[in-house]
Specification:
The protein is an all-alpha fold. It has six helices and no strands.
């Protein structure tokens, strides 16, 4: 290894850690950890755990360092909770923004699925009336229409999942530890869109079948 001046230094490896990550957003980077005596830092962060309350523990630590050193060396004391909150604040803000964007986009998509499916069923009023007038039962018409809607919704969901894959990989390049294939999400999202499509099919179809079949024949 080399020091900041470029001189080569011989060191003995005494341990290896799995990875070192500077922040939650960054990917792990190669880092060499050396003894304090070899390269004394300008500033030093000490993690201390005790049974005393946070305020009292910090005050006690200041008193101890004041008695040991004539020059105040302890610049700042903070709790682990406050330190983590400061490091994760930007993460929470980003996640909240992503959640709001996801909910907004999902709501628009659900509204689109409902509107298109409902409109497609409403344009077949005459067809369903004629089927009912020719002897088709409500159960048969429901089975026919739901089978068609299921095929269309399944094709749309599969196409949407393939289209979402590049976006997921792009997000993983920003958040390295993001889980792309989440089983709960992969099951819940298609079920929600399938339910919205079936609801958009059932409501207008129920309204259409409640009419008198002879009315559809008179409209021909």
């Amino acid at each position: 290894m080399t020091d900041p001046t470029g001189a080569v230094k011989v060191a003995q490896v005494v341990g290896v850690v799995s990875d070192v990550q500077d922040s939650m957003w960054a990917s792990p980077t190669p880092v060499a950890i050396v003894p304090l005596a070899a390269e004394p830092p300008a500033e030093l962060v000490i993690a201390l755990r005790g049974t005393l309350p946070e305020e009292r523990l910090g005050r006690t630590l200041r008193e101890i360092t004041r008695t040991l050193m004539p020059v105040p060396a302890l610049l700042e004391t903070t709790s682990l909770k406050q330190e983590l909150l400061g490091d994760t604040y930007s993460l929470y803000v980003s996640l909240a923004a992503m959640c709001c964007l996801g909910v907004f986009g999902g709501s628009i998509a659900l509204l689109g699925v409902y509107s298109i499916t409902s409109f497609r069923i409403s344009t077949r009023v005459r067809e369903f009336g004629i089927r009912a007038a020719l002897g088709a039962t409500r159960a048969q018409i429901y089975a026919l229409v739901f089978a068609e809607s299921r095929s269309v919704l399944t094709a749309g969901i599969i196409a949407g999942m393939f289209a979402a894959a590049p976006v997921a990989f792009m997000l993983r390049s920003v958040v390295p530890r993001l889980r792309i294939f989440d089983p709960v999400t992969l099951v819940a999202v298609p079920l929600v869109f399938m339910a919205a499509g079936f609801l958009a099919t059932a409501l207008p179809l129920r309204r259409i079948l409640s009419r008198d079949p002879s009315a559809a024949l008179r409209e021909l």
